[in-house]
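Lecture notes, continued. The same structure-token format from the folding unit now serves as the input rather than the output. Read the line below as a description of shape only.
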């Protein structure tokens, strides 16, 4: 099989990931429903990268590409505004997760993402850098704090070092943005992830179950996945992605017509239902 999706799969994804004009995301409520439906989604990925994307859902088309000057692009700007509103409402998870990708996660999938990428408290001293531990220590005392104050109180004067520490804590699913403030100057308010999603982050899930359920969420929206695609979208390594997809085959949720290619076991029925919904 060529490394190219069949047209009917692209159409299936258009419907599942709202890459159609009729399903265009315009409001924060629609953005939240989009994430809940997809399970997880990137913020600003475009046609050059696979997977659900809020930006493509705002554009309502699969071929959209983020321009170089996003500030002057109305679709990019609207996506960014919706992100800020989603962060402020705190009903779905948002942060820079695997590979630094800005990602939304539906509450039902938070335990699974945390099982793969989260860092437990007992492992923080071993796995987190000294700057990240310094930032975390301040937030554990204060619970929320603006960027400049957090940098000052943590003793990290270098901006790049502080940004790396914040990104590290986000990737470990320990810290999340709590609010975005534009006046009197732009800043993020940071808080502990457990303050927003205590039940989901306290839930214990084994790694095998976690990767299988993340794969299930992706394949449900994708319909079919090509070699390496799920790893690119989720941030898993290719070995774990393969194990996850094979687990779905073993339980009958998916089939694998050839090495590295997986599709939903009931794909034909879903394609028919998708066609009926779009007619």
């Amino acid at each position: 099989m060529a490394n190219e999706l069949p047209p009917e799969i692209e159409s299936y994804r258009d419907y599942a990931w709202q890459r159609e004009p009729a399903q265009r995301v315009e409001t924060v409520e629609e953005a939240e429903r989009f994430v809940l439906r997809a399970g997880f989604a990137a913020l600003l990925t475009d046609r050059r990268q696979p997977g659900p994307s809020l930006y493509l859902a705002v554009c309502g088309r699969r071929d959209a590409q983020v321009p170089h000057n996003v500030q002057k692009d109305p679709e990019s700007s609207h996506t960014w505004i919706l992100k800020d509103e989603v962060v402020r409402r705190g009903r779905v998870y948002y942060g820079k997760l695997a590979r630094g990708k800005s990602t939304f996660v539906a509450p039902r999938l938070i335990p699974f993402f945390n099982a793969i990428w989260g860092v437990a408290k007992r492992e923080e001293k071993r796995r987190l850098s000294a700057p990240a531990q310094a930032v975390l220590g301040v937030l554990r005392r204060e619970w929320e704090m603006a960027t400049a104050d957090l940098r000052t109180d943590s003793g990290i004067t270098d901006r790049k070092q502080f940004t790396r520490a914040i990104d590290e804590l986000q990737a470990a699913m320990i810290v999340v943005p709590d609010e975005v403030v534009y006046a009197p100057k732009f800043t993020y308010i940071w808080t502990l992830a457990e303050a927003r999603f205590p039940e989901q982050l306290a839930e214990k899930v084994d790694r095998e179950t976690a990767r299988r359920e993340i794969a299930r969420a992706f394949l449900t929206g994708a319909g079919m996945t090509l070699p390496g695609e799920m790893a690119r979208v989720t941030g898993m390594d290719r070995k774990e992605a393969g194990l996850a997809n094979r687990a779905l085959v073993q339980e009958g949720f998916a089939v694998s017509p050839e090495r590295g290619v997986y599709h939903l076991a009931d794909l034909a029925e879903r394609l028919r239902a998708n066609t009926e919904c779009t007619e």
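Point for the exam: The first strand starts at residue 40 and ends at 42.
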